[in-house]
Every structure is written in C-alpha cells, then in structure tokens.
Write a structure and sequence with these properties.
Blueprint (H helix, E strand, L loop, with lengths): L2 H10 L7 H4 L16 E6 L6 H4 L24 E8 L8 H7 L28 H10 L9 E7 L12 E2 L5 E2 L5 H33 L4 H28 L18 H17 L3 E8 L17 H5 L6 H26 L14 E6 L15 E4 L9 E9 L1 H10 L22
Parallel strand pairs: 1-6, 1-7, 2-9, 3-6
Antiparallel strand pairs: 2-8, 4-5, 7-8
Helix pairs in contact: 6-7, 6-8, 8-10
C-alpha cells in the first residue's frame, strides 16, 4: 500500500488528518513498513566493440557458461542477463561510431551537422532525449522518488572534447549532457555544501565564544538581546545537525590528493568514481547514473595491462591478428572487472532503511557503441544487465535475433513503472518492450 492509499484508508475510518502521522506506522493496522523500495538504473559504457568469440555464451537460457571477457562476473552469474541479438537500427547521418555512441541511449537519429566522421555523411547531436534522462525525469516528477540531483554522470578518461563520439546522455534534442570525469570535481558537486556547512559550524563556534566573552560586560537589557542572538546560533546548529541526519547517511569517501586526470591513472580514477557513485546512492542523491569509460573511437593506452597500442587502433585489426584479438580480449575483460568491482561494492552495502543490498535495488546495464570494432557493425551490441533493481528474471543468456535496442529502453522504462509506448524512433518500437520478466 503506497502513502496515498494509506491516507485514504485511514480517512475512510473517520480519522483526522492530524492523527495520520501517529497511526500510519502501527503494526496492527498492517500499515507499517509499506514504503516503496528504491529503484536505481546505472548505464556503464565501454567503447570500440568486443571480441564476439570471447564474449557471447554458447548456450542460451539458464545453462550458460561465461566466456573469458565476462569471467570477472562469475560470482554474480545468477544475477545477470546476457542479451545477444539486440541491435542499434538507427540510420541516417553520421558514421557508425557517431550513431553507435549518440544513438545508443537515445534510440533516434542525429541531426544534420558539420562534424565529419569516417566515410559517412557529417552529422550533429542526437534528435532526442536519452533513456537515462527519461528515467531521471520520471523519478523527479514524483515526490516519493525525487532526489537532490536526479541523475549523476560519471566519466573516466573521457577528455574535454565535445562531439557525438563523446556524448551518450542527452537531456533532449541537441542537448548533450557532459560526464564529469574528474573525481575531485564530482566530489565538489556532491559534497560542496557539506564543506560549506563545516565552515559555517566553525563560524558559529567563534560567534558563540564571542557572545560568551561579552555577556558579563553588558547591561541586563543587552544580555536579553544577546541571549536572543545565542538562541539563534543554537537553532542554526540544530538545523545543521538535522540536515546532516536527513541527507548524509554515509560520510564522503577519503581520497588521496593529486591523482591527475590522465590516461595512466585510469584504474585509480575508475575506483574513485565507483566509490563516489556508491556513496551517492547510500545518501540517495540520485536514482540514475551513467559511468562512461573513455569514448567512442577512444584511443586509451592500457599500460596497466602491458598494452601500449591505442584501443581504437587495435579494434581495427583483422580477425586473423591473434595478438590484437588477445589484447582486445584483455582490454574488455578489464572493463568487465571494473563492472564486477562496482557490482561487488553494491552487493556488500546494505540498503539504508530497507531490505537487502544496494544491488538488490539497482540494475546496471553495460553497453558498447559497436558490436565489433573492425566491421563497425551496430548489430549484436554487447549488453549485460546485472542486479535486481527492475525485477527482471536474471541468471540467463538470451538471444533476441536482431531486435531494435529501442525495445530494451522500453523495458527499462516499464521496469520502473514508466509505461511509455515508444522511445526514440517510434517505428523501432512497434514490437513493444523486450520481455525480460
């Protein structure tokens, strides 16, 4: 029973509005512990396609085995869905990398533009909102799911360049949302107010001491006025304490200072961003997040894997280049390992004021802009869903045999109770939401 239904039930008994706060938690009325569980959606992105033979399970259904790339997720196999046969069918302007990236979450075409890529026509930004922002708007439209930020966009090694290869989130047509790929900047965004409060507390401490010093040196009438000032200080301190209890269920993580936002520090930056995301969920700052590793056509050098080649350049190598295939497998396995770390941290963190772990109420979607790097195909997008947030039936590998990825976005929307009929290009939604229950 939701909050509105509880109030209607009690009013039906002739109970006054003033008594409602005292009655809604009484166990004998069966109205306690009826709060709606939290639901969260995280989209994680890694670029340049995959190595299909090292990614896709050979079998479908529950009896599937994880290939090398997905092996870091073995402890969570029963909580994951591997989706094959989901394709980006959006066509129009732009090359496959551009449409793969900027149409991945929007499911609609790019505007004509002057950004030239590959051998295809130039293009601009996407023509519609992305599914993460659609879900954010849905959550923010309801008082019971509204949060301070609504959504948070985390990046790792994205760079300052802004174009359709670097943006997957869109607030609307022609409105790309930039990820924050400096964890210190994200920390300031999340906890800048907390630091301001600490400064204010310090000031209040000084004021209180100053008031005490002058109290014995003034008239009785002035002391009454001084006591009013002191009471104001005490009230501000109470409000700050109450605000902390309400908003900060977990203290901010502690980071080493001076981790530069550069390629060689990507592993450290990744873990810092994951910890910030986790902390933001505990404090209920947002119900939607994106985690973007580098970008489409990303040229990261994975020196921590003893790989000196650029990622995108490697992805163009032929299938017969076994050395390149091995390196690409290790690169994608590393991305999967970062996903596994996020999943582990969510699974071992209890849900505040609720049952189970954060993972029980979170669905993570791991996606890529291409199915395969050297062919630039938009078919068979590598997709893994993990977590219990949307109530899908997990622990399976499924093959949807070429269905449009818009149908997955519809399933995500329906999973949080947002029953839209189309998302992105309407003609790609004719078969309705993917059946994942």
């Amino acid at each position: 029973m939701n909050a509105l239904a509880r109030r209607q039930f009690l009013k039906g008994l002739g109970v006054s509005a003033a008594a409602l706060p005292f009655l809604t938690g009484l166990p004998s009325l069966g109205l306690g512990a009826t709060g709606q569980r939290k639901q969260r959606v995280v989209v994680m992105f890694s670029p340049n396609g995959t190595i299909p033979t090292a990614f896709w399970p050979d079998a479908t259904g529950a009896d599937f085995q994880l290939k090398d790339i997905l092996s870091p997720l073995a402890p969570f196999k029963d909580q994951m869905l591997v989706l094959k046969g989901v394709s980006n069918k959006v066509r129009g302007d732009g090359d496959s990398h551009m449409r793969g990236m900027s149409c991945l979450l929007t499911g609609t075409e790019l505007f004509p533009g002057n950004i030239q890529g590959g051998s295809h026509t130039p293009a601009g930004w996407a023509k519609g909102i992305s599914i993460d922002q659609e879900l954010k708007n849905f959550f923010q439209s309801r008082p019971e799911t509204r949060t301070r930020f609504g959504s948070l966009e985390f990046g790792i090694g994205v760079s300052d360049r802004a174009d359709p290869w670097t943006r997957m989130s869109y607030a609307g047509p022609n409105q790309p949302v930039a990820p924050t790929d400096d964890p210190y900047q994200m920390y300031q965004k999340l906890y800048g107010q907390l630091r301001d409060k600490e400064t204010l507390r310090s000031i209040l401490d000084d004021v209180r001491e100053d008031l005490r010093k002058v109290a014995t040196k003034i008239s009785a009438e002035d002391r009454r006025l001084l006591e009013q000032h002191a009471e104001f200080v005490r009230q501000m301190e109470k409000e700050l304490t109450a605000d902390d209890r309400r908003k900060y269920r977990a203290t901010p993580p502690t980071f080493t200072a001076g981790v530069a936002n550069q390629n060689d520090n990507v592993p450290a930056l990744s873990r810092m961003q994951v910890e910030l995301m986790l902390n933001s969920f505990v404090n209920d700052f947002a119900r939607v997040a994106t985690l973007q590793y580098t970008k489409s056509v990303g040229q990261a050098r994975m020196g921590w894997l003893n790989i000196t080649d650029n990622h995108h350049t490697l992805s163009h190598e032929s299938d017969g280049n076994k050395d390149a295939a091995d390196k690409l497998t290790r690169i994608n396995k590393w991305f999967c390992g970062e996903l596994a770390y996020l999943v582990k941290r969510l699974s071992e963190t209890r849900e505040p004021d609720g049952q189970g772990s954060l993972l029980d109420n979170t669905l993570i979607v791991w996606a890529n802009e291409l199915g395969k790097g050297n062919s630039h195909t938009l078919d068979n997008i590598p997709l893994v869903l993990i977590g219990g947030g949307l109530g899908f039936k997990m622990g399976r590998a499924l093959d949807f045999k070429g269905t449009a990825h818009n149908r997955l976005h519809l399933a995500l929307a329906h999973g949080v109770g947002h029953h839209i009929k189309t998302f992105g290009s309407p003609h790609l939604c004719e078969a309705g939401a993917l059946s994942l229950a």
